[in-house]
Amino acid sequence: MGTSEDKVKLLSKDQIEAPFPDVEVEDENTEEDSNHIWRFVCYALAYMVVVGVFLSAITFQNSSTDEQSFSRDAGYKARVRQIRPGERFDDRLMHDMRMREEHRHAKMFPMFKPPPLPESSYDPPSRFEKAKTARYIVHNSDWGSISTISVSMVGVPFGMAISFSDGTVTNSTGVPYFYVAKFDPIVKNIEANNLSTLALSEAQSDYCKVHKWDPEDPLCSRVTLIGKLVHVGPEEEKFALNAIFARHPVMKTWPKDHGWQTLKLVITDVWLVDFYGGATMVPVKDYFKAEL
Ligand SMILES: *[C@@H]1O[C@H](CO)[C@@H](O)[C@H](O)[C@H]1NC(C)=O
Ligand SMILES: *[C@@H]1O[C@H](CO)[C@@H](O)[C@H](O)[C@H]1NC(C)=O
C-alpha cells in the first residue's frame, strides 16, 4: 500500500477522513510538532510580556500627570465658561506645565541666540532671558497694535496701530506711553472699559524677514502687554512727553487743537512667545527689573 501511504502524506488530516475513511493516519512528526508549538507559545508569551512591560512603562510613567491634565482640562473649561471680562485666570498647574515644557526645550536648544543681522542694530538678548527679551522688543518698537473694547461697535475687540515710546532712547522704563487726539476711538473706549492690550512683534523690524521666519514662527518673537490703559497723571506728564517726543519728534509739531492726551498702559501681565514650546507669562516684576 505504498501509493496510498504516499497520498496520505500529501494530504492534510481533514482531507484524509473523507476519501479514505479506513486509513489510519500515522503522524510521525506529532511529537516534534508539539515541541514546535510549545516553543512558539513560549516565544509568543515572552514577546507579549516584553511588549506589555514596554507599553505600560510609556503609558503609566506619567499617569499622575495625565490624571491631572484630564481634570485640569475639565476644570479649565468650566472656569472659562464662568469668567467675566477683566477677571484674572491664574492657573498654577497650567503654568507649571508650561515651565516644565520650556525647560525641556531650553535643554534641547542650549542658549539659543539668533545671530545679529549685518547692518542692523537690532540684536535681541538670548531667548532664555525672557524678561529681557520682552523689554528689548518693547524698547525697540516705535509702534504696535493696541486693543480696547469698542463702545461704538458694542463689545468689539477693536485693535489699531499706534505709536508709543517706553522712554528715551537711552532710558527704557518698560511702560508704554501714548499720545492720542481726543477724537481717537480708544479715548472713548477706555472711559467705559480701561482693559487693553498692546501687541508687538519682531516682524515689525526686518529681523524676521532676513532670518526667513514667518511672523508666526515662534522664533520671530511676539510680546503682548496686558493691562489698563489710563491717562498719565500730572506728576508724570513731563517725563511721558519727553519719552514720546524723543522717539517721535514730529508729534511736537502736530496741531494743538486736537486735544492731545497722554496715556500709558499699566501692565498687569506680559505674554511672550520667543521660542518653541508655547507662550511664557513673564512675571511683571521681572519685566520691570530687566536691564537692557
Ligand atoms: C530714567 O527714567 C527714570 C524714570 O522712570 C528716572 O528715574 C531715571 O533717573 C532715568 N535715568 C536716566 C539715566 O535718565
Ligand atoms: C480702570 O477701570 C477700573 C474698573 O472700571 C476702575 O476701577 C479703575 O479705577 C480704572 N483705572 C483708572 C486709572 O482709571
What is the H/E order?
HHHHHHEEEEHEHEHEEH
Biggest beta-sheet profile: 8 strands, antiparallel
Compute the average pLDDT. Answer: 81
Listed once per kind, the bound small molecules are: 2-acetamido-2-deoxy-beta-D-glucopyranose
Stretches where pLDDT falls below 50 for ≥5 residues? 1-21, 62-66
Structural class computed from helices and strand pairing: alpha+beta
How many helices? The count is 10
Distance between the termini: 102 Å
Helix content: 40-55%
DSSP, total strands? 8
How would you characterize the overall build of this protein?
With 292 residues, this protein is an alpha+beta fold. The protein is 42% helix and 20% strand. It contains ten helices and eight strands. Strands 1, 2, 3, 4, 5, 6, 7 and 8 form an eight-stranded antiparallel beta sheet that branches. 22% of the residues are buried. Mean pLDDT is 81; it is low at 1-21 and 62-66. Bound molecules: 2-acetamido-2-deoxy-beta-D-glucopyranose (NAG) (2 copies). One 2-acetamido-2-deoxy-beta-D-glucopyranose binds next to strand 6. Belongs to the CREG family. Its main location: secreted. Keywords: Glycoprotein, Membrane, Secreted, Signal, Transmembrane, Transmembrane helix. This is CREG-like beta-barrel domain-containing protein. The chain crosses the membrane at residues 37-60.
Summary of the model, kept short:
The chain is α+β, with helices and mostly antiparallel strands. It is 42% helix and 20% strand. Residues 1-21 and 62-66 have low confidence and may be disordered.
